[in-house]
Design goal:
26% strand
Length: 186
């Protein structure tokens, strides 16, 4: 028989109070000066705020450091996603010592590339493969969705650049006439 445990608001407050200073210290810690890849994205979560449950946006900066290891650079919470808030995130990263990001992987949020370029003018902006696939599938009719998605997957999961180029050429020959916008975006 497993025990059930109830998380009361009092318990949550006590735990939060116990770790808040450590969290603040972690969030403002000095960072490395160079990160080869930084993934900037957000997730939506339900959270209680002033007694009401509502959606919150959790901004995440996840990197691959020079040792090739994943490193969470920071977490920020806001009411909505927007390029203006992302500008504050990349500015904060810069203030914590990040001087160069080689590649920033982002979603297709309007104004996002400009926000990154304001802080890191030499960074290559790349659309995240998951967002690229989602964007591409917006053009596809429902009955062909699985077929086109499978062909896009063969490009995105190719083991080498040569294989990816081969798969892209095959995709272009098969779907290019019907979906030129997808071919152009890839």
């Amino acid at each position: 028989m497993t025990k059930s445990f109830r998380y009361t608001p009092t318990l949550i407050s006590a735990v939060t109070d116990a770790v808040i200073e450590e969290v603040k210290s972690w969030q403002s810690r000095p960072l490395e000066s160079i990160y080869p890849i930084v993934y900037l994205d957000c997730i939506y979560v339900k959270a209680r705020d002033n007694g009401m449950v509502g959606a919150k946006v959790v901004y995440l900066a996840l990197s691959v450091n020079l040792s090739g290891k994943k490193e969470l650079l920071g977490i920020w919470i806001a009411q909505t996603e927007g390029a203006k808030f992302w500008l504050s995130v990349v500015t904060e990263l810069k203030n914590q010592g990040v001087q160069n990001i080689f590649v920033a992987c982002v979603d297709g949020l309007k104004g996002f590339p400009e926000a990154i370029e304001a802080a890191y003018s030499k960074t290559i902006i790349q659309l995240c493969i998951i967002h690229l696939v989602r964007y591409s599938l917006n053009f596809v009719s429902w009955k062909l969705l699985k077929l086109v998605a499978a062909d896009l997957r063969s490009i995105s999961t190719a083991a080498t650049v040569t294989e990816a180029e081969k798969q892209l050429l095959a995709f272009t020959e098969k779907w290019g006439k019907d979906y030129p916008a997808i071919v152009k975006s890839w």
